[in-house]
Write a structure and sequence with these properties.
The complex is a heterodimer of chains A (399) and B (79). Chain A is an all-alpha fold and 399 residues long. Chain A has one domain. Chain A is built from 19 helices and 3 strands. Chain A has a two-stranded antiparallel ribbon. Chain A starts with a helix and ends with a helix. Chain B is an alpha+beta fold and 79 residues long. In chain B, strands 1, 2, 3, 4 and 5 form a 5-stranded mixed sheet that branches. In chain B, a hairpin with a 2-residue loop joins strand 4 and strand 5. Classes of the chains: A mainly alpha (399), B alpha+beta (79). Chains A and B meet through strand 1, helix 13 and helix 19 of A and strand 1, helix 1 and helix 2 of B. Chain B: InterPro entries: TusA-like (IPR001455), TusA-like_sf (IPR036868). Chain B: This is Sulfurtransferase-like selenium metabolism protein YedF.
């Protein structure tokens, strides 16, 4: 038997706590090395701009593209390589574990739901200036206050998303058949791990090329992107589930792991900021953060995945996430258009302010308040889980 | 070897993504009579973990260990 497939490391999913704490440490390290954060949707917006330019649309005058800097192309931007690195890292794990399979949803409505949810999530994320990464997992450790608003808003949005996804017309009826159904026949020709090794070698030479030709920023983007992709796939990290499953089935695993990962990342990031005298990355906190966060939360539940979760699921062969990806890019690009052309900036953003906790209450106050906020979130998570299960027990006892 | 009990019902979830495998599984179990056996076939990687964990958390028991069948998992759960 193939030695790679028998290695248990690739046969099992990794503990989400371990994975998210590692991701938190790595993202703090990436910030220390490059002064930028792990983020993806900004690049989705740029991708949308590049596609429009292919069709002859001149987006250079759009304010949003001046703000997020549309220079070069996706292969000459470190942010671009974060995205392609994540796709590669996820695909690599999928191939090495022999788990790629084209998965087509039985419920055809999922494609439309994914596309629609993807648009709403892409639009909301960019309106708030970040998705579950820059306005959440890597936003909190930057002590950017906009991420606090974003987390609460995402919670509200996912709540309504969960409500909608529980309605019969949305979730559809499963096919429950009588008796036993034969599972799929297993294909004994295992070729995916070999493709995985080929991919790893190709990507390693690309990294070597970047670092030996003085393109170390691209190299770092490609390397960290790869690691993030590996981690999110192996840990099955799902920010959508962190909120949604608490509301749907009282499941708390992902929320707790994300909160601990953010705590680790916050402490390390503060160390980076003080040791190397770095400027934390702060985004505007405004009405747009609240509205964007609610839309984002609502959209990710409808789409069954956020911008990060979509990436590894697509690599696993879950076809549903093709329309989600397309929706994300379309939603983000539409926001870039609406920013100045439809007056979104003036109505929702202009009155806002960049608030960084380090500047407003000092580094000690910043870390204490951040850890307190995370502890409160952790407490709320436990409370919801307990409450749900008490309710279920009563319901089963009454049955 | 003792002959395994035949499943009374099968929930074929191949192709469905999260959270629907969990929702559908819990719904199916709720609709069945106590003691009946449900076979679940799923291929969403997220469900390999959340389906068995949530079935247990909701008070259901397993007839046997989960079976890994290529890129899918089979679960046998008593309602």
């Amino acid at each position: 038997m193939n030695p790679v497939t028998t290695t248990s490391m690739f046969q099992r999913h990794w503990n989400p706590y371990l994975v998210l704490i590692l991701a938190g440490i790595l993202s703090a390290g990436y910030f220390g090395l490059t002064s930028t954060v792990w983020a993806v949707t900004g690049e989705f917006t740029r991708l949308g701009g590049e596609i429009l330019e292919l069709f002859g649309v001149d987006v250079s005058g759009w304010q949003y593209y001046q703000m997020v800097k549309l220079d070069g192309d996706t292969l000459t931007r470190a942010d671009g390589w974060i995205v392609w690195g994540m796709f590669t890292g996820a695909l690599l794990m999928v191939l090495l574990s022999n788990s790629f399979k084209i998965r087509l949803p039985q419920q055809k409505r999922r494609y439309l739901q994914g596309f629609f949810g993807g648009i709403v999530a892409g639009f909301g994320a960019r309106l708030a200036l970040g998705c579950n990464l820059a306005a959440f997992f890597t936003g909190v450790p930057q002590f950017s206050f906009h991420s606090w608003i974003f987390i609460i808003a995402t919670g509200i949005g996912t709540y309504f998303g969960a409500k909608l996804s529980q309605t019969r017309w949305w979730k559809g009826r499963p096919t429950l058949t009588r008796g036993t159904v034969k599972p799929s026949k297993i294909n004994n020709r295992v070729i995916q791990p070999y493709l995985g090794v080929a991919l790893a070698l190709t990507y390693a030479s690309l990294l070597l090329y970047f670092f030996t030709t003085g393109k170390s920023l691209l190299g770092l983007g490609a390397l960290f992107g790869l690691c993030f992709g590996i981690l999110i796939e192996r840990g099955q990290i799902c920010f959508t589930a962190a909120f949604r499953d608490l509301f749907l089935v009282g499941r708390s695993l992902m929320s707790k792991a994300i909160i601990l990962g953010m705590a680790a990342s916050s402490i390390l990031t503060l160390a980076m900021i003080t040791l190397y005298d770095l400027t934390p990355i702060t985004q505007v906190a405004a009405l747009s953060t609240l509205v964007g966060g609610v839309l984002f939360g609502f959209g990710i539940v409808l789409a069954s995945g956020c911008e990060t979760g979509m990436m590894y699921r697509l690599m696993e062969g879950q076809v549903l996430f093709l329309p989600v990806f397309a929706g994300n890019v379309i939603g983000a690009t539409f926001l870039a258009y609406a920013w100045d052309h439809l007056g979104i900036y003036n109505v929702l953003v202009a009155s806002g302010k960049k608030i960084n906790l380090i500047n407003s209450i000092g580094p000690v106050g910043a870390i204490i308040s951040t850890l307190t906020m995370l502890a409160v979130l952790y407490g709320l998570t436990l409370y919801r889980e307990k409450n749900y299960h008490r309710h279920i027990l009563l319901k089963r006892a009454a049955k | 070897m003792e002959k395994k009990k035949e499943a009374d019902f099968t929930l074929d979830l191949r192709g469905e993504s999260c959270p629907y495998p969990v929702i559908y599984t819990l719904e199916a179990l709720e609709s069945m009579n106590k003691g009946e056996l449900l076979q679940v076939i799923t291929d969403c990687p997220g469900s390999f973990r959340n389906v068995p964990e949530e079935a247990k958390a909701h008070g259901y028991t397993f007839a046997q260990e989960p079976v890994k069948n290529g890129q899918e998992y089979l679960f046998y759960i008593y309602a």
